[in-house]
Each structure stands twice: as C-alpha cells, then as structure tokens.
Amino acid sequence: MGGEIQKKNTYILLLAVCLIAICIFAANKVLAKTGDCAEVSIDGEVVYELPLSENTELLITGSDGGSNKLIISDGVCYITEADCPDKLCIKQGKISHNGESIICLPHKLVITIHNASDTSSNVDAITK
C-alpha cells in the first residue's frame, strides 16, 4: 500500500516538473523580442548584415566552398538549401527573435538575429 502512494507521488512530481518546463518554454517564446537584423558570419567574420524587413534570397558560400541558400521573408530568416552532409541548418527552422541562431558547422556559417540599434562594442577597457 505504501508503494502505491509513493508511485502516485512520483507521477505527480513528474507531471509538475513537465508543466513548469512547458510554462517556461512558452513564456520565453511569448516574451522574446523580435529582432530586426540578421548577422551572417563565415569562419567568425561578419560578411552580411541583412534587415529582416526586406525580403531577401541569398546564396552564401562557406569557407570550405560549400553553399547555403538563405531566405528572409515576412520578418523571418531560414535556410532552404545546403550542400552539407547532415543539413541540420535547414532543420533548425525559421528564426526572428533576438539571440536566435542558425549554425552550419561544415561551412562555418552562423546566422544570428539581433536589433540593428543594439550597439555592441569589442572594447575590453577604456583607460586615461
């Protein structure tokens, strides 16, 4: 009889943890701010800054000579074609919120969403 109660409590705890995780995921999606710019980097070097407000179709050649087809349409950014073996960059889907990325490791390609008005600085320190 004590085993049944313990089993029931375990299920209740598991259900509670799952519900909390779903709520956190949903809140993150709802509260995430939409970016307005897609930064395209190849091998760590920024090669394009593309506004999400303009529909764009771009064939990007990676550092190894491979290619990815980037689409920006209706404020979202995604990869539709790639000649890498696993095609994980295509499977990552559409991105439009700050901090979201699409990564293609074989081509050393990273696409990150951010706001163009954000001023990021590479300054470590300022001295007088």
Keywords:
3-stranded antiparallel β-sheet; about 25% helix; 7 strands; single chain; mini-chromosome maintenance (MCM) complex, domain 2; about 130 residues; 4-stranded antiparallel β-sheet; 2 domains; disordered C terminus; alpha+beta
- Mean pLDDT score: 87
Number of strands: 7
The CATH superfamily of the largest domain is known as N-utilization substance G protein NusG, insert domain
Described by the principal axes of the CA atoms, the overall outline is: elongated
CATH architecture of the largest domain: Sandwich
Percent helix, as a range, is 25-40%
Largest pleated sheet = 4 strands, antiparallel
The count of domains is 2
Largest sheet strand order: 2-1-7-6
Contiguous runs where pLDDT drops below 50 for at least 5 residues? 121-128
Structure description:
With 128 residues, the chain is of the alpha+beta class. The chain has 2 domains: 1-31; 37-114, N-utilization substance G protein NusG, insert domain (mini-chromosome maintenance (MCM) complex, domain 2), CATH 2.60.320. Helices cover 27% and strands 34% of the residues. It has 2 helices and 7 strands. It has a 4-stranded antiparallel sheet with strand order 2-1-7-6. It has a 3-stranded antiparallel sheet with strand order 3-4-5. Residues 121-128 have low confidence and may be disordered.
How does the SSE layout of this entry go?
Blueprint: H1 2-31, E1 37-42, E2 45-51, E3 56-61, E4 67-73, E5 76-82, H2 88-91, E6 101-104, E7 109-114
Antiparallel strand pairs: 1-2, 1-7, 3-4, 4-5, 6-7
